[in-house]
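User: quick one, sequence for these tokens?
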């Protein structure tokens, strides 16, 4: 998955901050705080702290790039409280 994310980071580096964390090391606290239960995990959080996207497991580049585009355009509704 790293090559896909690296490619997306190259495409969106001016608009998006990419943070890489290891769930068993430097990212354990954040992983727990976000209640992530698998890896790899992808979470998009808007500057105001609103989470707008979350998926676990291997993903296609188009899935991730579409989510980034939607987030940049603020078209993703916030997750429901269900």
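Assistant:
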């Amino acid at each position: 998955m790293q090559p896909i994310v690296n490619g997306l980071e190259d495409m969106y580096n001016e608009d998006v901050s990419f943070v890489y964390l290891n769930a068993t090391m430097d990212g354990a606290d954040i992983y727990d705080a976000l209640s992530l239960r698998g890896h790899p995990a992808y979470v998009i959080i808007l500057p105001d702290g609103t989470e707008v996207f979350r998926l676990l497991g291997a993903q296609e580049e188009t899935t991730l790039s579409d989510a980034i585009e939607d987030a940049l355009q603020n078209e993703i509704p916030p997750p429901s409280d269900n």
